[in-house]
C-alpha cells in the first residue's frame, strides 16, 4: 500500500475517532441512556447515519462512480447467515450494555486515555480468539 | 466557533459517520471495526490454533490504520476539542444512575468506577470490563460484524442479516440493562 493511501486510511480513522468521542457515542452513559430510552441522541446518530447511508447507496447504484482503484463503488453485502446474526448479535448486545463500548470506540477511548478500557480490548481479543476456536462447533 | 468544543449533536455525528462510510468505500474498502480483533489474533500467532486465523494480515493493513486513526482521533478530540467533557445526559437518567451509585452521572464523560484508575482496584470493574469485552468480541465476530458493519453499512444496503443482527444487538442490550446490570452496578459501588 502506498504511503499516500496509508495516510488516507489513517486520516479516515482519525475523523471517525473524533466523531465517536465528541458525539458521546463512545460514552458508557450515552449507551445506558439509549437502552433506557432517555434521549433521542443515540437513535438520532444511528438513524441519520443510516438515512444518509441509504442516500449514498442510491447515489452509488445510479451513478456507477469509481473508487480510488477505478472500481465501481458499492456498499458491502453481508453473508446470508441469520442464525449467527441473531445469536452473536444478542451476545454482543449484552457486552455492549455492560462495557458501554463497541469495537470502534474501544480504540478511541484508549487514545483519549481511559486506560482501564485496555481490559475491554483484552477481553474482546479473547472473545474473537474463542470464536475462531469454537466456530466449527457453533450453530450458524 | 465555541460550538465544536461542546458535545456534538446527533445531526452532525450521524451524517459524519455516513461520510466516513463513503470515504472508506471511495478507498475501495468497507466500514467494519470488529474484523481488526481477528487480524490482531492473527498477528499474535492464533493461526497455530485455528484455521480461521490463517489469513494474510497485510491485506487488512488498511483497517489496522483506520483502527490506529480511531485511537489518534480520541487523543486529538480529548486534548484539543475538550472531548472528555461531561455528557449532557437526560437529568432523570442521571438521577437514576446516581441512585445506583454512579455519582458522576451527568458530570463526567464515563463512570469513574469503570473508566478511571479506580477500576484497577475494583474487582467488579475488572469483571465487567474483561467479561463484557469478551462478549463484545465473541458476539461481534459470531454475528459477522458490529455497529459499524451491520447497523450502519448493512442497514444502509438493505441487508437482512444486518437487520437481524441490529435487532439482536438491541435485544441483548435491553435485556441486560434492565435485569443484570443493576446488580453488577450494586457490586461496583463501594457502600461508602
Features:
heterodimer, A: 140 residues, mainly alpha, 6 helices, 69% helix, 0% strand, globular, B: 192 residues, 9 helices
List the helices and strands and how they pair.
The complex is a heterodimer of chains A (140) and B (192).
Chain A: H1 3-23, H2 28-35, H3 41-63, H4 82-99, H5 103-111, H6 117-134
Helix pairs in contact in A: 1-5, 5-6
Chain B: H1 10-26, H2 35-43, H3 61-80, H4 91-99, H5 112-115, H6 123-143, H7 147-156, H8 160-178, H9 181-188
Report on the architecture of this protein.
The complex is a heterodimer of chains A (140) and B (192). Chain A is mostly helical. Chain A is built from six helices and no strands. Chain A has helices at 3-23, 28-35, 41-63, 82-99, 103-111, 117-134. The longest helix of chain A has 23 residues, at 41-63. The two termini of chain A are 34 Å apart. The model of chain A has no long low-confidence stretch (mean pLDDT 97). Chain B is an all-alpha fold and 192 residues long. Chain B contains nine helices and no strands. Chain B has helices spanning 10-26, 35-43, 61-80, 91-99, 112-115, 123-143, 147-156, 160-178, 181-188. The longest helix of chain B is centred in the last third of the chain and has 21 residues, at 123-143. The termini of chain B are far apart. Chains A and B meet through helix 1, helix 2, helix 3, helix 4 and helix 5 of A and helix 1, helix 2, helix 3, helix 4 and helix 6 of B.
H-E string of chain A = HHHHHH
Task: Count every beta strand of chain A, where a strand is a DSSP E run of 2 or more residues.
Answer: 0
Query: Low-confidence segments of chain B, ≥5 residues, pLDDT <50?
Result: none
Number of helices of chain A: 6
This entry's quaternary arrangement is heterodimer
Task: Explain briefly what this protein structure is.
The complex is a heterodimer of chains A (140) and B (192). With 140 residues, chain A is mainly α. Chain A has six helices and no strands.
Amino acid at each position: 500500500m502506498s504511503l499516500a493511501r496509508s495516510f488516507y486510511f489513517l486520516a479516515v480513522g482519525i475523523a471517525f475517532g473524533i466523531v465517536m468521542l465528541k458525539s458521546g457515542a463512545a460514552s458508557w452513559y450515552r449507551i445506558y441512556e439509549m437502552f433506557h430510552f432517555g434521549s433521542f441522541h443515540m437513535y438520532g446518530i444511528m438513524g441519520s447515519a443510516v438515512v444518509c447511508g441509504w442516500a449514498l447507496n442510491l447515489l452509488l447504484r445510479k451513478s456507477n462512480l469509481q473508487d480510488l482503484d477505478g472500481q465501481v463503488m458499492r456498499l458491502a453485502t453481508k453473508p446470508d447467515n441469520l442464525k449467527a446474526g441473531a445469536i452473536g448479535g444478542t451476545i454482543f448486545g449484552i457486552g455492549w450494555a455492560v462495557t458501554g463500548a463497541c469495537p470502534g470506540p474501544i480504540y478511541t477511548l484508549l487514545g483519549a486515555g481511559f486506560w482501564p478500557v485496555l481490559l475491554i480490548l483484552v477481553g474482546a481479543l479473547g472473545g474473537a480468539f474463542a470464536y475462531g476456536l469454537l466456530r466449527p462447533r457453533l450453530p450458524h | 466557533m465555541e460550538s465544536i468544543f461542546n458535545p456534538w449533536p446527533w445531526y452532525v455525528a450521524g451524517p459524519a459517520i455516513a461520510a466516513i462510510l463513503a470515504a472508506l468505500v471511495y478507498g475501495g474498502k468497507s466500514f467494519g471495526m470488529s474484523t481488526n480483533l481477528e487480524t490482531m489474533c492473527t498477528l499474535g500467532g492464533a493461526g497455530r490454533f485455528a484455521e480461521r486465523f490463517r489469513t494474510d494480515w497485510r491485506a487488512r493493513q488498511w483497517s489496522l490504520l483506520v483502527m490506529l486513526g480511531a485511537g489518534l482521533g480520541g487523543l486529538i478530540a480529548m486534548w484539543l476539542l475538550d472531548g472528555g467533557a461531561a455528557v449532557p445526559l437526560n437529568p432523570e437518567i442521571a438521577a437514576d444512575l446516581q441512585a445506583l451509585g454512579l455519582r458522576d452521572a451527568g458530570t463526567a464523560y464515563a463512570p469513574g468506577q469503570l473508566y478511571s484508575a479506580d477500576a484497577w482496584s475494583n474487582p467488579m470493574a475488572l469483571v465487567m470490563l474483561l467479561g463484557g469485552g469478551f462478549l463484545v468480541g465473541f458476539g461481534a465476530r459470531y454475528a459477522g460484524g458490529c455497529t459499524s458493519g451491520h447497523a450502519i453499512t448493512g442497514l444502509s444496503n438493505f441487508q437482512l442479516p444486518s437487520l437481524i443482527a441490529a435487532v439482536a444487538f438491541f435485544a441483548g442490550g435491553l435485556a441486560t440493562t434492565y435485569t443484570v446490570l443493576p446488580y453488577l452496578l450494586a457490586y461496583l459501588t463501594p457502600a461508602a
